[in-house]
Amino acid sequence: MRWPVLVIALLAVALQYPLWIGKGGWLRVWEVEKQLAAQKDGNRKLEQRNTGLEAEVRDLKTGYEAVEERARFELGLTKPDEVFVQTPQQK
Question: Among residues 86, 87, 66, which one has the least CA distance to residue 76?
Answer without folding.
Answer: 86
